[in-house]
Amino acid sequence: MKQATIQITFEEEKLRALRRYIAKRDSTLEAELQKAAQRLYEKVVPAAVQEQTEAKLLQDFFAQLQNQGASFDAYLQQNGITADQFKADVKQQAADTAKQDMALDAWAAHFELKVTDEEVLEEFEKSGAKDPKALLKEWREGGRLYLVREALLRTHAVLDVMEKAKVTEYDPAEEAEAEKKAAKKSSKKAAKKEEEAADAEA
C-alpha cells in the first residue's frame, strides 16, 4: 500500500524527552507515532464511513418511498416493525456495508487498482443522459464525481477478488469419512504401541 508522510510541530524539549524515554522501551518515536495514527484511524474512520453509509441508505429509502407514493407509517405497519426497529435495522445494514466497502477499498489500495477517466465517462454515457459530458462536468463542479470513481473502484476490487480467489469445494461427508479413517489409524497405532510395551515388559 502506498505510504504518505505526516509532519507535525512539537516542542523541542518535549521531543527530546520523548525520544529518550521511548528508546528505553526498545522502540522509536516514529514507530509509536505510527501506532497512534493507526489507533486514530480505527477510531475515527469506521464510524465516519458508517455514518455516511447510513445517511445514504436513509436518503435512498425515503426517495423510493416518495416515488411509490407511500408513507413511512404505512411501510412500518406493512412490515410489522416499529420506528426504533427500523432505525436499528438501518444501522446494522450500514455497519455491514461500511465494513465491506472498507475491505474493498483496502484491497484496491493494496493491489493499486485504478479507475480511468474513460471509465468514468462511460458510466455517464450508460446513464442515458442526453449530454453525458455536461452531466459529468456538473458532477465534478458539485464535488460528487468521487462517488462514481469510488463505486467503480470497488467494482474493480470485487472482480479482482473473484479472479484471485481460490475456491475449495467442501463436502461434509468426505471430511467425516476422512476423520473416521484418521481416528481408526490413530487407534491402531496406539494399540500397536501398547502391545510392544507389553512384550517389552514380558
Brief description of this entry?
The chain has 202 residues and is mainly α.
Number of helices: 8
Radius of gyration: 29 Å
What class would the helix/strand composition place it in?
mainly alpha
Mean pLDDT: 83
Unreliably modeled segments: none
| Share in helix | over 70%
Reported for the largest beta sheet, the result is: none
Using the alpha-carbon principal axes, give the shape.
extended
| Strand residue content | under 5%
Structure description:
The structure is a single chain. By secondary structure, the protein is mainly α. The protein is 78% helix and 0% strand. It is built from eight helices and no strands. α4 (83-110) packs across α7 (145-164). The mean pLDDT is 83.
Q: Could you give the topology of this structure?
A:
Blueprint: H1 12-23, H2 29-68, H3 72-79, H4 83-110, H5 117-126, H6 132-141, H7 145-164, H8 172-201
Helix pairs in contact: 2-4, 4-7, 5-6
Keywords:
mainly alpha; 8 helices
